[in-house]
């Protein structure tokens, strides 16, 4: 979906296909037919943007076989779909029964991550619509925090500098400008947007920036305006933004709240959980004293790992249009505030937006879509909500 910003530029809205796991090119082609085109039709659109997730095997096939890449481009056109952004975070196995920590491998100290992301950039350059010259890729925020020492940090920085050089060469060769954004995530070396500033300013290249995921932003209790203003001041480009909402529990000390949270503790993905504590001052106000967290929701619920005196947020991408039932809710207000700052000003901070709710089948059983048609309805409803938020900010939906 395309929108005209008041400054005349085009803002793209897509939904991420990592909700439909596929490891091979054949699987990707089936996604287009079975899921993406039905969502487009449900929205009544002639054209729909999708943020493709291409696993290692699919990416290698497309990168090494020009006919396969031409075939995918033709299938996108046939189904009324377009691609300006890729999700390059998961490498493979995102549809496995247990993903957890595996999603952070290989990290940016491993040559495989550089090779994979380079392949994705070449593929994206070949998939961009004829009237689009800029593409974006979101990627792992360097590494999971453990086993990441100074040596691996330098290897990661070197890899990103090499990637920037390759992206420059790709632009000279194809005329297509591809940018890559580190996606801060709780538990990673780069957990917050603040954590991203130092490594990205050290690289200092406009093709390497940040992907702002609004679920991750909320889970770490970052204020959207403060975070985005700091990125702007540091001249860190916002390559893309993933529109997503986290799970919020206002009163985690209550037994009924912990029971409701337990329904979201599932075995497939990590659901990093965070809370922020405050200390009363002599004047009666409170001062934030720090972020506390666990790697997973079950760990938070299983003992005294987190204080119960302040709200909890869990890294669980809940559907944008359907907040969990009381006593839980979502961080949709954080998404709205971030979107206002991202595209509501005189010029957009990013032109690539991607709805990313990959956890539909990880929801509590009674909330999961029971068939393909209900999943189509849910994704279409999320995109419709995002569309309405954009038009409320003064953007005009284009045909």
Task: Based on the model shown, name its key terms.
399 residues; alpha/beta; 8-stranded parallel β-barrel; 5-stranded antiparallel β-sheet; 15 strands; 39% helix; globular
Structural account:
- By secondary structure, the protein is α/β, with parallel strands linked by helices.
- It has 12 helices and 15 strands.
- The strands form 2 sheets. The protein has an 8-stranded parallel barrel with strand order 2-3-4-5-6-7-8-14, surrounded by 7 helices. It has a 5-stranded antiparallel β-sheet with strand order 11-10-12-9-13.
- Helix 1 (25-43) crosses helix 12 (372-392) and helix 2 packs across helix 3 (66-78).
- The protein starts with a strand and ends with a strand.
- 48% of the residues are buried.
Helix % is 25-40%
Q: Tally the helices: what do you get?
A: 12
Large-scale geometry: globular
Strand tally, please?
15
Low-confidence stretches: none
Percent of residues in beta strands?
15-25%
What is the arithmetic mean of pLDDT? 96
Distance N terminus to C terminus? 8 Å
Radius of gyration: 20 Å
Biggest sheet strand line-up: 2-3-4-5-6-7-8-14
Q: How would you sum up the major sheet? A: 8 strands, parallel, barrel
> What is the chain-wise order of helices and strands?
EEHEHHEHEHEHEHHEEHEEHEEHEHE
Outline:
The protein is of the alpha/beta class and 399 residues long.
């Amino acid at each position: 979906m395309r929108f005209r910003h008041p400054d005349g530029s085009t803002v793209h809205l897509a939904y991420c296909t990592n909700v439909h796991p596929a490891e091979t090119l054949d699987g990707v082609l089936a996604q287009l037919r079975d899921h993406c085109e039905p969502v487009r039709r449900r929205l009544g659109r002639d054209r729909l943007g999708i943020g493709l997730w291409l696993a290692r095997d699919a990416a290698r096939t497309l990168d090494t076989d020009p006919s396969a890449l031409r075939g995918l481009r033709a299938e996108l056109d046939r189904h009324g779909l377009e691609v300006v952004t890729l999700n390059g975070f998961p490498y493979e196995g995102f549809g496995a029964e247990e993903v957890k920590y595996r999603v952070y491998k290989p990290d940016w100290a491993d040559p495989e991550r550089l090779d994979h992301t380079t392949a994705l950039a070449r593929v994206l350059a070949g998939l961009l619509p004829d009237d689009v010259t800029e593409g974006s890729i979101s990627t792992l925020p360097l590494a999971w925090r453990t086993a990441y020492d100074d040596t691996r940090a330098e290897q990661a920085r070197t890899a990103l500098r090499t990637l920037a050089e390759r992206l420059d060469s790709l632009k000279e060769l194809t005329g297509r400008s591809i940018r890559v954004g580190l996606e801060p995530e709780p538990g990673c070396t780069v957990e917050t947007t603040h954590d991203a500033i130092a490594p990205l300013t050290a690289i200092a290249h406009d093709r390497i920036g940040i992907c702002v995921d609004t679920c991750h932003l909320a889970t770490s209790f970052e204020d959207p305006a403060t975070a985005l203003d700091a990125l702007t001041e540091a001249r860190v480009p916002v390559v893309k933004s993933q529109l997503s909402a986290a799970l919020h529990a206002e009163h985690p000390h209550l037994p009924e709240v912990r029971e409701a949270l337990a329904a979201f503790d599932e075995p497939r993905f990590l659901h990093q959980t965070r809370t922020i504590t405050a200390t009363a001052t002599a004047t009666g106000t409170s001062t934030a004293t720090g972020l506390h967290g666990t790697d997973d929701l079950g760990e938070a619920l299983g003992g005294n790992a987190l204080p119960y005196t302040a709200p909890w947020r869990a890294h669980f991408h809940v559907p944008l249009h359907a907040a969990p039932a009381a006593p839980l809710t979502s961080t949709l207000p954080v998404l709205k505030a971030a979107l206002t700052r991202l595209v509501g000003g005189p010029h957009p901070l990013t032109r690539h937006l991607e709805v990313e709710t990959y956890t539909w089948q990880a929801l509590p059983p009674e909330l999961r879509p029971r068939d393909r048609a209900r999943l189509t309805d849910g994704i279409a409803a999320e995109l419709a909500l995002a569309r309405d938020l954009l038009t409320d900010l003064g953007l005009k939906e284009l045909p």
